[in-house]
Amino acid sequence: MLRNISRPPTARCTLPMYISFLLGEPKQISCCRLGEVMAISHDSVTRFLQREHYDGKDLFNESLPLLNAVGGTLSVDDSVLDKPYSQYLAFVGYFWSGKHHGTVKGINLITLYYTDVHGQHLPVNFRVYDKSEGNLRTYFAPPE
Q1: Residues 75, 47 share a domain
Q2: C-alpha–C-alpha distance, residues 79 and 98, integer Å
Q3: Average pLDDT of 75-100?
């Protein structure tokens, strides 16, 4: 079960709303898109995300009960979230994009997926690649 939120929500965005959006939106994941779909302000979504600070361990703890953790396969996927107009945003760099078949300015999101023997597959960890670290291995430490 996902950890309890730190304090009662004041924003119109809630944890169940956010999770439902992530599970249901096939292409465009953004605060603006969630605000559009749920008829709330995108600032409400931003405030919710800034307050709670979810990390890979929370995702692992949420996914594990839904999977058979014996005999499955782990796979890694990276996606570049295009940020062509950003100037001083953290984690923005130039990364290879298969979508654009070239280098683009954006944020490199790395997701670890687990597929169990019954074909159920879910993300179990995620990281945003930070070029200043210089070592990707540090981003896939197992949950504590």
Answers
A1: no
A2: 9
A3: 85
Query: What does the alpha-carbon distance between residue 13 and residue 110 come to, in Å, rounded to a whole number?
Result: 25
Q: At what angle do helices 42-52 and 31-38 cross, to 10 degrees?
A: 120
CA–CA distance from 90 to each of 77, 78, 132 (Å)?
21, 18, 10
Hey, which of 26-30, 119-123, 128-132 has the most confident mean pLDDT?
119-123
Does 91 reside within a domain? yes
Residue with tokens 């169940």: 16
- pLDDT tens track for 22-78: 777 766 778 888 888 888 888 888 888 888 777 778 778 888 888 888 888 999 988
Name all contacts of 1-4 with Cβ < 8 Å and 24+ positions apart: 1/61, 1/62, 1/65, 2/58, 2/61, 2/62, 3/58, 3/61
Coil, strand or helix at 74: strand
Residue 144 lies inside a defined structural domain of this protein = no
